[in-house]
Amino acid sequence: MMSCTCISIMMNAITMPISTPCKSTTTNISNQISSFPSKPSFPITKRSVGRRLVTTTRALLSSDRDTVLNDFHHHRALKIIAGLQNFNAADVAAVVTAADQGGATHVDIACDPELVKLALSLTSLHICVSSVDPTTFPAAVEAGAAMVEIGNYDSYYETGRIFTPDEILNLTKETRRILPSIALSVTVPHTLSLPDQAKLAELLEQEGADVIQTEGGKCSSPSKPGVLGLIEKASPTLAAAYTISRAVKIPVMCSSGLSMVTAPMAITAGAAGVGVGSAVNKLNDVVAMIAAVRSIADSICERKAMAEETTLRRL
C-alpha cells in the first residue's frame, strides 16, 4: 500500500501538461530514418565497421565514470532497455537506433561484446550492459561498454527465479572487485517490501554502487484503462523510487512499467532518471520506437523546466 505522500506527489505530477510529438518532429523523424528497414540488416558492412571505429574512439574518450553519471546528477537521465536476454542483433540495433535518435542519454543491452560493438557502430550514447554474472562484464567493458548493470530481473521472474538481498550484495561486491572504476547500477528487486528495498539500497551504496534502479511494472496488473491504468502499472516502481531516493545519496533510476505519462512522475518522486523497456522494445517499427522515446524524453524535459520555473518564481 502506497503512502499518502507518494500518492499526493504522483497526482501533483500528472497535472502538468503531457507532451506529444508535434507534427514537425514526427516528420523529421520519418525523414531521418527513411532509409532504415523496420529491423536493420546484418552482417555489418565494411562501411559500418569504419563508423564503429570512429564511434568507439569517441565513446572511450567520454566514458569515464563522472561523464557517464553526469545526466543522473542533473536529473535528466533516460535509459532505453533492450533486454537482459535479448541477443537478437536486429532487435538490439533497432532499440539502439531509437534511443539515439529519440533523445535518450543511455542505452542498456545484453552483456555481449559483439552487441556492444554493434551498438557503438550506431550511436555515441553511453552503453550499459546488464547481467547477473559479474564474470561476463570485463569482456563487454573492453569492447566499449561504459556502464554495467546488475539487474533487469524480469525475464528470471517468469521462471520463478528470485534474487535475495544477500545474493545481490555478493554480486555487487564481486563486480566492484573485478571492475573498481566502472559506473555501476544495481536493481533492487520489487519482491522485497519498501522498507527492505530501502535497506538493501543503503547497503549497496556502501558497497560502491553508483546508481540504484527500481522495478515493479511486471508485478502490477492495472484494473483501469487509459491514463489511470498507466498510473496503476507504474505505482510500484514510483513508490520504490520515492522511498529509496530518501534513503540514499546516490542517484535512483526509476524503471519498469513507465510511459510518457508516468516518467515525469518518477522525477517528481525523487528519481534522477528513468529506464524504459517494453514501452519501446515491444514496438515493431523503428519510426514508432523513435517517436516513443522522443515523447518520453520531451515529457521529462517539460517536467524539469516546470520545476525550475517554479523555483525561480519562489525566489
What does this protein structure show overall?
It contains 14 helices and eight strands. With 315 residues, it is of the alpha/beta class. The chain has an eight-stranded parallel β-barrel, surrounded by nine helices. It is globular.
Widest sheet: strand order?
1-2-3-4-5-6-7-8
For the largest beta-sheet, the strand count, sense and barrel status come to: 8 strands, parallel, barrel
Nearest-integer average pLDDT: 83
Radius of gyration: 19 Å
**Element string (H = helix, E = strand):** HHHHEHEHEHEHHEHEHEHEHH
Strand count: 8
First CA to last CA: what distance? 36 Å
Describe this protein with a few key phrases.
315 residues, alpha/beta, 8-stranded parallel barrel, 8 strands, 54% helix, globular, disordered N terminus
Describe the protein's topology.
Elements lengths: L3 H11 L8 H10 L13 H17 L2 H9 L3 E5 L7 H14 L3 E5 L2 H10 L3 E6 L5 H7 L3 E4 L3 H4 L7 H14 L4 E5 L6 H13 L4 E3 L12 H20 L6 E4 L7 H7 L3 E4 L1 H4 L4 H29 L1
Parallel strand pairs: 1-2, 1-8, 2-3, 3-4, 4-5, 5-6, 6-7, 7-8
Helix pairs in contact: 1-12, 3-6, 5-6, 5-14, 6-7, 10-11, 12-14
Task: Write a concise synopsis of the structure shown.
This protein is an alpha/beta fold and 315 residues long.
